[in-house]
Structures are given as structure tokens and as C-alpha cells.
């Protein structure tokens, strides 16, 4: 049985989708949450402290960590769910779009770890879970900026794991396939339609945010105490199976 009893985790992107489900799951398993998002009402409760912060700004994240520590007494790790979908190929993408994708999805993940690490190093333990994507593991057309950021998140995760293993800090990623959240609402408007996306997943349905949150909670917990520098796809078989798909 997984428990996060008496542990506090900072979750970015906690106002929506996978981040919101992760915050819920941590609390359901006995933990407490510092919930960070761009537009979230600042609120201090028994189980959740909500802090408005932009993950591209280190000072915002450091503020979230320090107020979280004051409120709950300690921070035991974090989950980096804040992210943007940024489609485009190399010709249509302009440098402003490229910079925005990198600054939120990749720099934001690094800065979240950077804000958390002094506290975790000080404690001599910790767990961080980053959110990559199946499109960090394989390519797809028309999604270049996003795919690049998620490939970067996977390598950032391994580098963090290597650098902080000596401090007993574990760093892992999860790579979701198609999960129904506000970010993927747009999929139904793509020319191939939602059905085509679903068919790439052998389980033949979109995943639910709670199913990603369950994998994240496992990686945060002591049940994963000998797991670091790894990537766990939560993708209904997308990354492991290449079957002929009959329409
Ligand atoms: P979501 O529902 O759109 O949630 C993302 C959250 O991040 C939103 O609340 C968003 O706020 C917030 N955010 C964006 N930029 C931010 C910033 N600069 N600072 C702080 N917060 C910021 O999307 P989701 O589907 O749950 O995605 C969560 C993570 O999973 C993302 O990294 C995404 O790339 C990854 N992922 C999702 C899927 C999927 O199928 N859903 C698949 C693979 C990977 P705003 O709404 O105000 O922008």
C-alpha cells in the first residue's frame, strides 16, 4: 500500500488536468500539497496551500517553497506538471514560440528543481517527478517545439538524478500518452480527429489524469525507494507496441 503520510510535495500546474489530479492523489494518500499555478487563488488550508507562481520565474518558485515550508514544516519533493502544448514544424515556428515552449516546459522544470533542491539536500532525502511525454520518447510531425522540450525534460531528469543521488534524492519522469485534460481538448479539432489518436494506444481509450497521478504518487513514495533516473510511460501501450491498426 502506497503512503505519502506526513509528506509535503510542491506540485506545479496544480490548477488543472494532471497537476490537479496529482494534488488530489497526494492528499488522498495522507500527504499535503503546495499547489502552484499561474492563476490560482492564494489559499492556505490544512492539506493544501495554493500559491500563484510562474514556473519561468525562479523567485516565484523559491517563494512557493519557502511559504510551503513555513506552512507545513518541511518539503519532501515536487512534481513538475506545468506545461504548454506548442505545435508547429521547423518552418512555421518562429523564435518567440520556440522560446515560450522552452521557457515553460524545459526551463520551468529545471527552475522548479532548482528551487526545491536546497531544501531536499538540507534534509538528505527527497523525490522529484517530472512530466515528460511519449513525444519526448518518439517523434511525430507538426509538433517540433513541444517534442524538443519533452526530450529535454527526459535528459534533465537523468542529469538531476545523477547529480543528487549522493544526497538520497530520487528524480524520475512519467511520460503520459493521450490523457483527457483541458490541454488535449483541441485534439478533437485536428483533421485526423480524436479516434486516430485513441487508436495509437492499444488500450483504445484516452487515459485519465488520475491514472497518471497514481504513477506519480508511486514514484514519490517509499515504495519506489530504489528507483531513480528512470522514465515511466503511462500511455496505454503507445510506446511499447507498434501494431497494424485497422480502421
Ligand atoms: P493542463 O490541464 O493545461 O494543465 C497545465 C497547467 O500548467 C495549467 O493550469 C497551466 O495554466 C499551467 N501553466 C502553464 N504555464 C505555466 C507557467 N508558466 N507557470 C505556472 N503554471 C503554468 O495540461 P495537462 O494535460 O494536465 O498537462 C500537464 C503536463 O502533462 C504538461 O507538462 C503536459 O505537457 C504533460 N502531458 C500531457 C499530456 C496529455 O495528453 N494531457 C500528454 C503528455 C504530457 P494555464 O491554463 O493558465 O496555462
Care to give the gist of this entry?
With 247 residues, the protein is α/β, with parallel strands linked by helices. The protein has 7 helices and 8 strands, in the order E-H-E-E-E-H-E-H-E-H-H-E-H-H-E. Helix 1 packs across helix 7, helix 2 packs parallel to helix 3 and helix 3 runs parallel beside helix 5.
Helices, by number, come to 7
Q: Give unreliable regions as ranges.
A: none
Q: What's the architecture in CATH terms?
A: 3-Layer(aba) Sandwich
Tally of strands: 8
Return the string of H and E elements. EHEEEHEHEHHEHHE
Description of the molecule:
The chain has 247 residues and is of the alpha/beta class. It has one domain (8-234): 3-Layer(aba) Sandwich (Rossmann fold), CATH 3.40.50.720. 40% of the residues lie in helices and 16% in strands. It contains seven helices and eight strands. An eight-stranded mixed β-sheet has the order 3-4-2-1-5-6-7-8, with helices on both faces. Helix 1 (17-28) links the parallel strand 1 (8-12) and strand 2 (32-37). Helix 1 (17-28) packs across helix 7. The termini are far apart. The relative contact order is 0.15. The model has no long low-confidence stretch (mean pLDDT 96). The chain binds NADP nicotinamide-adenine-dinucleotide phosphate.
Outline the secondary-structure elements:
Layout (H helix, E strand, L loop, with lengths): L7 E5 L4 H12 L3 E6 L5 E2 L3 E5 L5 H15 L4 E4 L14 H29 L2 E6 L2 H4 L6 H21 L4 E8 L16 H7 L9 H12 L10 E4 L13
Parallel strand pairs: 1-2, 1-5, 2-4, 5-6, 6-7, 7-8
Antiparallel strand pairs: 3-4
Helix pairs in contact: 1-7, 2-3, 3-5
